[in-house]
Amino acid sequence: MTKTYRAPTLWDRIRADYFSSRLNTALTLTFGAFVIWVLWNLANWGLIHAVWSAENRDLCGHGGEGACWAVIDARWRLIMFGLYPFEEQWRSAIACCALVLVGILSCVPWFWNARRISILWVAGFATFYVLMRGGVFGLTPVFEQNWGGLSLTLFIFAAVSLLGMPLAIVFALLRRSELPWIARTMGVIIDTIRSLPLLSIMFTFAIVLPFVLPGWMIGDKLYRVIVGYALFFACYQAEIIRGGMQALPAGQEEAAKALGMSYVHRIAYIVLPQAFRNALPPTINQFVITFKETSLVVIIGFFEILASGHAAFGTSEWNFAHVEVYAFVALIYFVFVFALSRYGAYLERRTAIAAR
């Protein structure tokens, strides 16, 4: 008599993974108890005994049992908007929302078209810049040195990504050129820039470059830093894209040549789509790293969200609340980075299904 197959239940999988032997059971119970203890202490500190309102600031202090979230209630404007003028901070808030909305809409498949995505990003960036910079439509001018907080972090990240990705594609194509002098020269440039720390590149573009450029080319320090960061991003991303190209079977491009397809059509319709699919995981990782490393601009005088957080507890009134401020800033970073990683996982599943 044949036995009918029964799919394993959730409890069957848990028992097989964590309680398959006495040692595994002991380790599972010990680690589970430790996790429960950690979570209980975090909940006790961050929720149960926490002080939430700035009106109860007197309950906070070095000897308090819980977190002092009152510092966030009192200083959240400084953390989110930095040095932006107080009465104009609504513009910075709307600009951030506009840029986040553009990022969300970019994830919708309907916008995965060169014309649509270009229009979306041009419109979104123009809206962001007009709101932040002002000087038109009756808006008070606010110069770049007064930008700060989350809006500056998002602006640097988006600008670096928009400039760096097309540049990375060009670099990758030049490095795989059939002309040796082009490929080797591009290889030297990419390897040289990749061997330098990002901070040194930022410092060079922000401080050193104005001494060797004519006055009309200097521009604002913020834009010079963005160009340097985009160049750094492009060199790393070019190697990622080139790796995706090398994973393609050579016969595909040869078949396209035999069919009489031009170089542009071969690259646009055959090579790049498959290369990006092959290089999707490291590409998402590169975007995550780029977002987190925007905090380095604080070294050269920009008031991004991490610097704004540091200023929030930099007074005698709140100097004990640095843990709470850093936890709040970390939560903001986590939201954006986790969203990027989850979207990358969705794209991997979608491309895997499409490739079947």
UniProtKB/TrEMBL annotation:
GO molecular function: transmembrane transporter activity
One GO cellular component, as annotated: ATP-binding cassette (ABC) transporter complex
Protein name in UniProt: Inner membrane amino-acid ABC transporter permease protein YhdY
Residue ranges of every copy of the ABC transmembrane type-1 domain listed in the record: 150-344
Matching Gene3D superfamilies: MetI-like (1.10.3720.10)
Record-annotated membrane-spanning stretches: 21-40, 90-112, 119-140, 152-174, 195-216, 222-241, 294-313, 325-346
Record keywords, A-Z: Cell membrane, Membrane, Transmembrane, Transmembrane helix, Transport
Major place of residence: membrane
Membrane topology designation: Multi-pass membrane protein
Any Pfam family: BPD_transp_1
Subcellular location: Cell inner membrane; Cell membrane
Keyword Metal-binding: no
Gene name tied to this protein: yhdY_1
SUPFAM superfamilies (alphabetical): MetI-like
Coiled-coil intervals: none
Family: Belongs to the binding-protein-dependent transport system permease family. HisMQ subfamily.
One example of a Gene Ontology biological process annotation: amino acid transport
